Amino acid sequence: MATSVETKDCTALNDAELAEMADLASDQPTRYDIGVLSKQREEWVLITRARIGTALHGYAFATLERIGGTPSVLIGLSSIKRSAKRNEVLRALLGDLYRRAVLAFPDEDVVIGTRFAGPSGFEAFAVTKLVDIVPRPGHRPSGEERAWGRRFAKRFGVDGGYDDRTFVVQGDAPVLVFDFESLKPEKIDPEVVALFEGVDPAAGGTLVAFGWAMAEDLAKLA
Q: Which residue in 52, 78, 135, 183 has its CB near the most CB atoms, within 10 A?
């Protein structure tokens, strides 16, 4: 079966839909429960959900906004089912969000920011061909890139424990991240894995990461 995807306002999420989302995460490391999801409904603008047949396989909370005048897509708490079709679900979720970015910010480059608890999350950036990803192996972030990291950390509400040199957040709150696990974790670049050396999800640790979607690439989704 093909993957279908839908994006709507978070305010339109009902309790039954939140319960379905909580059920998806119940057997995953993050285990987002209905209490956490209810709070996310209040904090984010959009919810994108992907299904295979009638079964929910993934979801992502997000907001499209301008940060300092720059078009931005912030992706919050997200969860993708550990199935054989997880890559297809990943592309469907992000593709729908990017299509909305085209409508909101036509003919403009858009910065995409989120948080990861482990290196598998970087596949979310790879499958959608983002450029100038930060942090990345072998790259020394510029002052402007570090400033962008601080902006995202502030927007995510984790700036209190954020290190703008490593892009790592230390904290004791629940880890609210883009939760995706690679089908082939053994093939992840060891240098990407090394970016997470200081990240302790059990203690609320995450990595703030972002990349750019070019206007010409986004236009293909319109």
A: 78
pLDDT per 10-residue tile (average), the chain, 222 residues: 93 96 81 91 97 96 97 96 94 94 95 96 87 96 97 93 94 84 94 93 91 92 70
CA 144 to chain centre: 21
Q: Which of 54, 56, 100 is nearest to 78 (CA)?
A: 56
Please name every residue paired with 147 in a beta bridge, in sequence order, or none if there are none. none
Would you give the end-to-end CA distance of the chain in angstroms? 24
Q: Give the strand pairing for 178-179 and 206-213.
A: unpaired
Q: Let me know: does 86 contact 180? Beta carbons within 8 Å.
A: yes
Burial of 36 from C-beta contacts in 10 A (0-12 / 13-18 / 19+): middle
